[in-house]
Write a structure and sequence with these properties.
Elements: E1 14-17, H1 24-38, E2 42-47, H2 53-66, E3 70-76, H3 79-89, E4 93-96, E5 105-111, H4 124-137, E6 149-151, H5 155-164, E7 174-179, H6 185-193, E8 198-203, H7 225-234, E9 238-242, E10 249-252, E11 258-259, H8 261-275, E12 280-284, H9 290-297, E13 301-305, H10 309-319, E14 323-325, E15 331-333, H11 342-354, H12 360-365, E16 371-372, E17 376-379, H13 383-394, E18 401-403, E19 408-411, E20 415-421, E21 427-434, H14 437-451
Parallel strand pairs: 2-3, 2-4, 3-6, 7-8, 7-9, 12-13, 12-14
Antiparallel strand pairs: 1-5, 4-5, 9-10, 10-11, 14-15, 16-21, 17-21, 18-19, 19-20, 20-21
Helix pairs in contact: 1-2, 1-4, 5-6, 8-9, 8-11
């Protein structure tokens, strides 16, 4: 019987409830389809700490090996550790994770060799079509010679590679609280931080895909409350929070205050431009005005792009960019195969803070120049109609520019906002920034009144 994968094959990955929406039999077909579409004779596969991850990843490996591909299993890993393995071994890869989704979910993030992304336009649609066909007609013909399946440890080499990209040899001792959210940060942080002059205070390092303490999504302020309190209680220099698959990293200063991912993007951009003078830096269109300003001040060229890792990675490849950052705390590095790694961004923050005597709040103040609303979601029945009403309200006004690179962006001399529709939910997402908090609040409330009318 054919299966409908429309609910689980997303724009960039596979994600759904196990076993209701997909299971090990489908994972095996995904493995076979992956090596067929990528024409790979060898791949690398890793997985997170979810209860269903070992079984799903093993099934995927069987499907790939049945068609003749050799499979290297790296076992428990973060998503950026899988990207490391794909880049260092020059193999296509598959990571079994559902990131910050609840425990019953799982998914697959796939990449070609060198960590190049696989999305709807770069192979994922073809993979889906094969799995749907094979689920109805039966599995593909087994290769004359099955591939091998071997295990390999990559955590040590991953940590060594990251530390080769940031000089932490001369930093002052720092006390850092890390909230791993029972996700893969609990696996990677001890090895990456080993040997550094850090007093590490671990929180929720036990690998537990049922997330007993809080959802592993630091973008939601409710999920960093424990970290904020612990930073203050410990008198720590900073706090770090990783999401479930540890590819994103959020930063909290010594006062327990969240540091904007835009400020982190600007800070890391300045450091990367010191290493690669005159380089190009990618930023999505809802990062702060401060990001392109800092890039220009440091001799670089900023390039504005749509939201989403596939767009960032495409622009990085097309422009030869050295670094890219998003408001969602995804950070991309040319020195990491253009892939995103929150861990490398965290090491840059530690190096910057430890290389001077001031506090983190004082350090990032130079990169946090404007008043931002953060992302505000509104549930609406008709996304197009509400977005059109907002456009009509601002179109034709003197002193305003409108563009539709990604949703609607309206820019004035003292403020801007972006309104985007969610691809997966009946939501409109609003981001507002202004030169002062009063103006930001005024624009925010005006737009929300139109959105929610």
């Amino acid at each position: 019987m054919a299966v409908d994968l429309s609910q689980i094959v997303k724009a960039y990955d596979v994600r759904g409830v196990v076993p209701d929406q997909w299971d090990e039999s489908l994972a095996e077909l995904f493995g076979a389809a992956f090596v067929t579409v990528t024409q790979a004779d060898a791949i690398v596969v890793g997985h997170d700490m979810r209860p269903s991850s070992p079984g799903l990843s093993a099934a995927f490996a069987r499907g790939a090996a049945a068609l003749g591909a050799d499979v290297t299993l790296i076992g428990l890993c973060s998503t950026d550790q899988l990207y490391y393995a794909s880049g260092a071994l020059n193999l296509p890869g598959a990571m079994f994770t559902a990131s910050h989704n609840p425990a019953q979910y799982n998914g697959i993030k796939m990449c070609r060799k060198g960590a190049a992304p696989v999305g709807q336009d770069t192979g994922l649609a073809e993979i889906r079509a094969l799995v749907e066909r094979w689920s109805e007609q039966g599995a593909p013909t087994v290769a004359a010679k099955a591939g091998t399946i071997v295990e390999r440890e990559t955590l040590t080499d991953y940590a060594t590679h990251l530390k080769s990209l940031v000089d932490l040899s001369a930093i002052r001792p720092l006390k850092v609280v890390v909230d791993a959210g029972n996700g893969m940060g609990g696996h990677t942080v001890p090895t990456v931080f080993d040997g550094l002059p850090l007093d590490l205070v671990p929180m929720y390092f036990e690998l537990d895909g049922t997330f007993p303490n809080h959802e592993a999504n630091p973008l939601d302020p409710a999920n960093i409350v424990d970290l904020q309190a612990r930073v203050i209680a410990e008198g720590a220099d900073l706090g770090l929070a990783f999401d479930g698959d540890a590819d994103r990293c959020f930063v909290v200063d010594e006062r327990g205050e969240p540091v904007s991912p835009s400020a982190i993007t600007a800070l890391v951009a300045a450091r990367e431009l010191a290493r690669h003078p005159g380089g190009t830096v990618i930023h999505n269109l809802i990062t702060s005005w401060s990001v392109p300003e800092v890039v220009r001040e440091n001799g670089g060229t900023p390039v504005r792009t749509r939201v989403g890792h596939s767009f960032i990675k495409q622009e990085m490849a097309a422009t030869g960019a050295i670094f890219g950052g998003e408001h969602s705390a995804h950070y991309y590095f040319a020195d990491f195969w253009n892939a995103d790694t929150g861990m490398l961004a965290a090491l840059h923050v530690l190096a910057a803070l430890g290389g001077q005597e001031g506090t983190l709040s004082a350090l990032v103040a130079q990169y946090d120049r404007y008043a931002g609303s953060g992302e505000i979601n509104s549930t609406v029945e008709d996304q197009k109609a509400r977005a059109a009403a907002v456009r009509a309200a601002y179109e034709g006004q003197d002193g305003l520019t409108l563009d539709e690179l990604d949703g609607l962006t309206v820019t004035a001399q003292d403020w801007w906002f972006n309104l985007r529709a969610s691809n997966t939910e009946p939501l409109l997402r609003l981001n507002v920034e202004a030169r002062d908090a009063t103006t930001m609040a005024k624009v925010r409330d005006e737009v929300l009144a139109l959105v929610r009318a």
